[in-house]
Amino acid sequence: MDKSGFIVGIEAGGTSFLLGLAAIKDIHNIVISKRIETVSPEETLGQCKKIIELWGKSHNILAIGVAAFGPIDLTEGSEFYGYITTTPKEQWKFTNILGFFEKSFPSMVCTMHTDVYPPALAESKETFESPSISTAYVTVGTGIGASVCFEDESTIFCEAGHASCPVSRVDQLTGFPGVCSFHKCGCIEGMACASSIAKRAGIDPSELKSLPDDHDVWNNVAHYLAHLCLNITLMWRPKRIVLGGGVMQRSCLFKLIRMKFVKYLNDYVSVPPVDKYIVPPKLSHPGLIGAFYLASRGLKKL
């Protein structure tokens, strides 16, 4: 592998795409980055192409790694391999993201995965007191997803955000319907993603930052995220659960989630101290760093 070149990482989220450029020999040093709004596939991917072409004029780019929202078909040989498939984002249903980048940049190695596997790998390998221990990574933003990276780097990536859990007492009383177009109030994403929080508060999702920490909505949302942590714990027993994504920038959520998690687990199984077990990301851009991992791994397979 030519370590003198550069790679592009793309964290493709439902609200925005974050693109970054890094040297292969130092993927933690982001040379340049650019964030763009997620609009239609044609416009968003077209902007990505222009940005990469511009960077390519001054840097020898060898590979692109894309960590994208989903669901994504990752079965090689499938008719829809590399596609975003049945996403709630109507415009993006059955969008061939991998194919777009392979066609646009045929001289580059292009790889793609979910938006939760790469950050799980990055957080597991690169941070904390004991690197390479099993780590669950959850992103909470426009959608909710999860991935578990084990000690041997085998990984489970799943649609855990669409797992069901008990509806909170508050939502039972108000009859809040949730926002998931597939499961209504029957799944965690529909009850705890950014748009559901905004809908409860009667504001636009772009205004979430204006909500105070003592707003009732945060306690309600913590109910669902604590149940997600509980389910992950009981199914996969990771050594830690990292909660990332835009919604988790609200630091008061960690205290609420930890408190409810302890209550719901009720000492059924042993876990590390909860403030060491349910934690924020250590990396400033785990999704982007993870996308760099994808790109560099793609080159190693040549």
UniProtKB/TrEMBL annotation:
Lineage, highest ranks first: Eukaryota, Metamonada, Carpediemonas-like organisms, Aduncisulcus
Name of the protein: fructokinase
Keyword Metal-binding: yes
Superkingdom: Eukaryota
Gene3D superfamilies per UniProt: 3.30.420.40
Pfam families assigned to the protein according to its UniProt record, in alphabetical order: ROK
InterPro entries to which the protein is assigned, alphabetical: ATPase_NBD, Carb_Metab_Reg_Kinase/Isom, ROK
SUPFAM superfamilies named among the record's database cross-references: Actin-like ATPase domain (SSF53067)
Enzyme Commission number(s) from the entry: 2.7.1.4
Enzymatic class: transferase
Names of the cofactor(s): Mg(2+)
UniProt KW keywords: Magnesium, Metal-binding, Zinc
CDD domains: ASKHA_NBD_ROK_BsFRK-like
Species per Swiss-Prot/TrEMBL record: Aduncisulcus paluster
Coiled coil: none
